[in-house]
Amino acid sequence: LKRDSRFAQITDDHVAYFKDLLGKESAVIDGVTTEVSSDDMEPYNGDWMRKYRGHCKLVLKPGSTEEVSKILKYCNDNMLAVVPQGGNTGLVGGSVPVFDEIVINTSRMNQIRSFDDVSGILVADAGVVLEVADQFLAEKGYIFPLDLGAKGSCHIGGNVATNAGGLRLLRYGSLHGSVLGIEAVLPDGTIVDDLSKLRKNNTGYDLKQLFIGGEGTIGMITAVSVQCPQRSSAVNVAFLAVDSYEKMQQTFREARQQLGEILSAFELMDLRSQQLVHKVRSSKSPLDGEHPFYCLIETSGSNADHDTEKLGNFLEDVMSKEIVTDGVLAQDETQLRSLWSQREGIPECLGHWGGVYKYDVSIPLEDMYRLVDETREKIDAAGLRGDTDEFPVVDVVGYGHMGDSNLHLNVAVRRYDKRVEQVLEPFVYEWIAKVNGSISAEHGLGIAKKNYIGYSRSETMVGLMKQIKNLYDPNGIMNPYKYL
Ligand code: FAD
Ligand code: MLT
Ligand code: ZN
């Protein structure tokens, strides 16, 4: 990949313009006119997986939509490439520069604009941290319709830009449904004010959908309006052990049948993912012994007695039918959090050894786990897995949002290694294309999946995407070198 020579290099004059515009010292981090150590730039240049590193020398932190508009117009007029950035927790290298693109970070745009207690509609700046939004809503009896392990750092603008799925999509659906409106800025500075608070609005093309999951390639989201559901007063969690993937599918089926409308999460974890979590944390499994698979089932409803009885009956039933081998129900809030952390902690623990190859895929349920087994066989056949530094692969694990047919196939490594990559790619992508799956269920394409979009989208569709990109961003300054 080569730097696109159409883009200008940042000069002192550019920096002076931005300093004048944004004023406050903290709003511009500049390695062009000021000596800043690479440590100061590292949080903006390096991604969460320590896999991608940019060389940006200028980070801008606008405080308002108007400032974003002026920044983008100036960049567009001067052919300066930019990367929109929220909490920088993205997992496909989309949120960091590739060369010297300017980072436009949303952390100073962090105000909740309004909340309607009756409709549950929240309007907030793009830079509000997901957990902050959710805590605000909790006080009002509502919940943000998205939850994920990075909630303490990711921004809701970033969530919308990636169309993040997370742990409760099964219950609350995709952001394509719950985001009612968007305010965004196009590269030429135009402010698209579509902060609708309407649940229904069939007036022509629904253009906001292009920004949802657009990964910052056509404009910068500055605010969102979100339909938030009622927070359930009764939440229960069960952690179950299952002997085979076949039985895991039966467990899911029974859970849907028996728990019905109160089911709010069904998360899969294989034994190896749990072994790695326990190794890193020096902790123990909530269940005795070792079992090939585990799942976490959450229910959310309005009647604690009713829900507890329902979940208890379900557990008794699936154990008596020998579908489930063992299980535990959280008895209090502390235990509930601890069970959730067996699942939510997986991504962080997998990164412990140095790196991780991540495949976030949608596959028909019946085929889902076979991909993990076959990938492990390939890695073993290549002699890449072992206990010492000579063998880069620590393990091949599978976990994910089984309730949404979304598997996370992860290969934890001691260091990123071309040999490992060559075994995995295009093997994994070919496998997915064969079963008509998707190479990106929820993380997006970014730079990691840039060359593989063709495994999930036809030439016609990629062509249409390119037309849209060119229409919105004719100079190509928005998040260049990424998937389009
Ligand atoms: P960033 O990482 O900063 O940016 C992500 C992308 O969006 C980039 O392409 C960036 O250019 C663009 N972008 C950011 N802000 C804007 C904006 N305002 N306007 C336009 N474009 C913008 N994802 C899931 O789907 N489900 C999960 O369960 C899940 N769990 C995770 C758990 C962990 C521990 C981690 C580290 C990540 C997880 N993710 C998950 C990945 C997920 O994509 C991000 O966590 C989150 O949605 C990204 O938000 P962010 O603010 O960090 O965005
Ligand atoms: C998750 O479900 O934990 C996230 O999508 C992060 C990951 O895939 O590791
Ligand atoms: Zn996920």
From TrEMBL:
Q: Which GO terms describe its cellular component?
A: mitochondrion
Give this protein's Gene Ontology molecular function annotations.
Answer: (R)-2-hydroxyglutarate dehydrogenase activity; D-lactate dehydrogenase (cytochrome) activity; FAD binding; metal ion binding
Q: What class of enzyme is it?
A: oxidoreductase
Q: What is its EC number?
A: 1.1.99.39
Q: What domain of life does the native source organism fall in?
A: Eukaryota
Q: Which SUPFAM superfamilies match?
A: FAD-binding/transporter-associated domain-like (SSF56176), FAD-linked oxidases, C-terminal domain (SSF55103)
InterPro entries noted in UniProt: FAD-bd_oxidored_4_C, FAD-bd_PCMH, FAD-bd_PCMH-like_sf, FAD-bd_PCMH_sub1, FAD-bd_PCMH_sub2, FAD-linked_Oxase-like_C, FAD-oxidored/transferase_4, Oxid_FAD_bind_N
Compartment annotation: Mitochondrion
The family annotation for this protein states: Belongs to the FAD-binding oxidoreductase/transferase type 4 family.
What is the name of the protein in this document?
D-2-hydroxyglutarate dehydrogenase, mitochondrial
The major lineage groups are: Eukaryota, Fungi, Dikarya, Ascomycota, Pezizomycotina
